[in-house]
Amino acid sequence: MHKYKLSHLDYLESEGIHVMREVAAQFERPTLMFSGGKDSIVMLRLAEKAFRPARIPFPFLNVDTGHNFPELNEFRDRRAAELGAKLIVRTVEDALAKGIAHQVPGEISRNRLQIPTLLAAIEEFQFDAALGGARRDEEKARAKERFFSFRDEFGQWDPKRQRPELWNLYNGRLLPGQNMRVFPLSNWTEMDIWEYIQRENLELPSIYFAHEREVVRRAGQWLPVNDLQPPKPKEEVKTLRVRVRTIGDIMTTGCIESDATTVEHIIQEVSTARVTERGGRADDKVSESSMEDRKREGYF
Fold first, then answer.
1. Which of 35, 44, 80, 246 has the maximum number of C-beta atoms within 10 A of its C-beta?
2. What pLDDT, on a 0 to 100 scale, did the predictor assign at position 286?
């Protein structure tokens, strides 16, 4: 009798596909959060494998902060069009104009402002589940999540109220107004993501690969020069060969010096990195509990 030997990526892929099919079976109006980042790109591949040749049975949702890297928005729009998927974009700018979100004076990053924008979009379209690409190795608060992450009527997350998930059984029952955030990549690591991207030969935004960009040194990291936040007086602008390891608000996402021009080179780079993936995100350094506080308020 011939025995098939599955790789660890095969197991992770199978698990992710199972979770996605559970979402399609248990919820009436699910959506897939798609930013164009590497994790959401892997999510798209899992969705394709879960449902093809039929169409992916839920729309894509993106919360645009207005501080996105242009390369990311171009990739987001193009991939959604190529897949024939409905892409819903809700912007922080509109949320501010409508009074849904409120900016604190002196606040640079708009990551916090994604919370009311996202909650308003979930209410607008009555989504009962939102699939996201968060992984447990990203940050301490992420490690407290389940595959099915329950949110109350106010979109809030309480780690003590999460449901047990025994024998791959997921409880998606909700009362009106409640919501489920679902994380099929929960058991993946950053290295798993890159190895899967390499195996599946997935296209990525160019910003993930080494390129020349004007940067300034600020708070111990290289930040991209942009029109939203010009260099401060006496700051030296340098043109370096850099790439981004994780993509967030352009105002706070640090670049790393790199010559990696292929996924294979990136895998080699990640395997020897001493700084965590989100170590280049200034907005995560405000306090150790900042991510957990944001998640309690409704952050993804």
1. 35
2. 45
